[in-house]
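In this supplementary section we document a worked example of the pipeline. Step one takes a protein sequence of length 231 as its only input; no multiple sequence alignment statistics are reported here. Step two produces a three-dimensional model, which step three serialises into structure tokens for compact storage. The input and output of this example are shown verbatim.
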Amino acid sequence: HFPTIPITRIDRDSTRRKGSMQAVIDKVHEGGAQILVGTQMLAKGHHFPNVTLVGIVDIDSGLFSCDFRASERMSQLITQVAGRAGREEKPGRVLIQTHHPEHPLLNTLIQHGYARFAKDALDERQQAQLPPYHYQALLRVNALDEQAVLAFLNDAQQLISNSDTQHINILGPVPAPMLKRAGRFRYQLLIESAQRKPRHVFLKQLLPELEKLKSSRKVRWSIDIDPVDLF
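The serialised model returned by step three reads:
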């Protein structure tokens, strides 16, 4: 559509070599790149004074995700990317592609800014008993053999059923959102509590027992305290 306009790609692959990112930035400032196509790397604090139009493609994955923090990351990305447009005297414009323009969090972000969005998002998390109002730990398990993962998790559930879970909620086990990565099957089990201390006491008792399981030798497993994502 723009046969005479120079287009530059900016992502991890195109800037892998040493000095390549700076070369691209210099090219932009010299006017040799007038359309930039890239990933969120474009949002990371770069100063492009001649950029006046920014397009963000398909943000719906941030609005509807199994990870409750997805909308938070989406809003941060929109705010950062929007900051690339109209940084000096020239006015800027931001176009957002979505199938759900009526989404309340998206409209709050656009009409009232990030501070109001954050307040509404925190209210939702409090009602849903999610962090930072509840405390989580994620048992991640993976192996080349899916049955080995399931066997370990079955043994882990038996241990948990014999433990004091009065102030603990157990969710799962379930397949990870990306079930298979690098040839390994991935499952997880979520541990929640309204307070830190019961979670700490529970894990302190559980971890040594998990290490004793014969099934643990056939898998890789870890406990992620206060996980920043559920993938």
